Amino acid sequence: MFLNLSNKKYIAVGDIHGCAATLKAFIEELKPFYDRTFIFVGDYIDRGPDSEGVVNLLLEFRKKVNCVFLRGNHEQMLLDALAGGDRQLWLMNGGRTTIHSYQNDGQQFELPDEHREFYEQTQLYCDTEDYFFVHAGISPTKTIKESLENKREMQDFLWIRSHLNAFELPWEKTIVFGHTPRPHPIRKSKMIGIDTGCVYNRPGYGKLTGVLLPEEEFVEHACID
């Protein structure tokens, strides 16, 4: 997905993981920036207490603000489970909390149609003139163009972490991603990471982080879920 906007100002938002109260407070604080495009980098669900509430908030938010919703590995695991794939993998990675948020017993898990469409319509990436947004990252040994030409490489957009320790990168522009929680945002050459472990109750984590672009200024809200 290539996003070509006359207003090249964005806010990228990191992994939410079912923290609906935090998301609500966060986007309320960002009202002065509603003229920008909000790009959510995925992992809306699992682990936190209210995955259903997160999606409800996002469905309402997109009525007011231009939004792009990327797919995280947790949305992919949910979709795979619904399609008859590895259900245990999803359950082991926080899927049970998502099931409970929808008030299902886990035996006959069903989603509202609007929510299922939301998950199915999430994008693997968003490419803009100056930034490339993706959930986890991309190969540190290939250009963005080369990765987009290889379906196997594109699946790694949901899971990869090998770029985090790379010294030199062939990327044509800065990559903005989540997926790997850190106590502080990652800011390196051609690399911005915005997963600060919103759902984790451990020292230094427990924050929902976004980044204003092109200013590359970080904004955060402590988890209140």
Low-pLDDT parts are none
Number of strands: 10
Shape: globular
CATH fold call: Purple Acid Phosphatase, chain A, domain 2
| Domains, number | 1
Topology:
Blueprint: E1 10-13, H1 20-29, E2 37-40, H2 51-61, E3 67-69, H3 73-82, H4 87-101, H5 113-121, E4 125-127, E5 131-134, H6 144-148, H7 151-155, E6 174-177, E7 186-188, E8 191-193, E9 207-213, E10 217-222
Parallel strand pairs: 1-2, 2-3, 5-6, 6-8
Antiparallel strand pairs: 1-9, 4-5, 7-8, 9-10
Helix pairs in contact: 1-2, 3-4
Give an account of the 3D structure.
By secondary structure, this protein is an alpha/beta fold. The protein contains seven helices and ten strands. It is globular. The two termini are 33 Å apart.
Give short descriptive properties of this protein.
225 residues, alpha/beta, five-stranded mixed β-sheet, Purple Acid Phosphatase, chain A, domain 2
Compact overview of the structure:
The chain has one domain (10-222): Metallo-dependent phosphatases (Purple Acid Phosphatase, chain A, domain 2), CATH 3.60.21.10. 29% of the residues lie in helices and 18% in strands.
